[in-house]
Amino acid sequence: MRPPAGERALSVNSHETMHVCGPCGGEGEDPFLRTSPPPESLPLCSLHTYDGLRHMENGTRKSWDFMQTHDSVSVLIFNTTRHCFILVKQFRPAAVYMCEWEKSQPEKVKEKVSEEAGKDASKGGEPGVESAETETDNAELDSGHIQDIPPASVGVTYELCARPVDKPDLSLEEIARQEVLEECGYDVPVTKLRRITSYRLGVGVTGAKQTMFYAEVSDENCVGVAEGSRQASEGELVEVVKVPLHEAIRFAYDENIPKTMGVIFSFVWFHSNMSPKYKISTNV
After folding, report:
1. Most buried of the four, 31, 157, 162, 258, by CB within 10 Å?
2. pLDDT digits (tens, 9 = 90+) for 14-68
3. Start-to-end Cα distance in the chain
4. CA–CA distance, 167 with 207 (Å, rounded to integer)
């Protein structure tokens, strides 16, 4: 699994401006407020990112920060041989782990933010300062000077097999098939992928679209990729895990198990749509 939906973070500063067109066709200012002229080389019906977004909403001028990301695909994988779902478990340093870290020491976070703001204001772009500070921070971590750090386990989440749509020459189904093979080790024909639905992710920050598929596999489809392994060249450490069918609904609603909304939705979808085939009780 790649970083969430192929993130390509923009340098965003809500105090600066961004041009947003009116309705497609480039005509009109409503409902958006133009704060700067668009580049001549870009079509007026596009969303042009500068350093932030400002618009009028119900008579109030507002500003937003956001990230531009790839759309993505996800796959609910069901192993018919073992009657279990195939998920992946992955450490998410940003933002899952950091959210837990901030909650564990809010006062330290405030102090750190104030300290960093002071450093940014004082260093004035001096070369070498940032790298030196990074080395100092790493040394503090290695020597144990930073206390009360939550365990890495708080940043681990259970997720569907997924990847960004970052190959324009491939269909969504082909991208999904590749990821199931590379990440979970199952070779599934494109024709066996069933499209469930699509939806928006992170609507307050990214708004990217994810398309979810369903794939049935068997032990015969497994091509021998070792579970818990990942190509080191991709810089990922992903563990493949199995969730027994009879435990899926309990798993979905157990708030002590960190998981994505895609896992919950897909398990409920399976029990609503596939239960007659597998004679499953859908009682929660």
Report:
1. 162
2. 333 333 333 333 344 433 333 334 344 433 333 334 346 777 788 888 777 777 7
3. 30
4. 19
CB count, 10 Å around CB of 22?
16
Give the span between the Cα atoms of 182 and 160, in whole angstroms.
Answer: 14
245 three-class SS: helix
In sequence order, what DSSP letters do the residues of 63-128 get, joined into one string? EE---EE--EEEEEEEETTTTEEEEEEEE-IIIIIHHHHHHH-HHHHHHHHHHHHHHHHHHTT-TT
Q: Measured at the alpha carbon of residue 182, what is the angle toward residues 180 and 187, in degrees to the nearest 5?
A: 55
Q: How many residues does the chain have?
A: 284
DSSP codes of every residue in 21-76: -SSTTT---SSS---SPPPTTS-TTSB--SS-EEEEETTEEEEE---EE--EEEEE
- Helix, strand or coil, per DSSP, at residue 5: helix
Quick one: CA dihedral 145, 146, 148, 150, positive or negative?
Answer: negative
121, amino acid identity = A
**Which pTM does this prediction carry?**
0.66
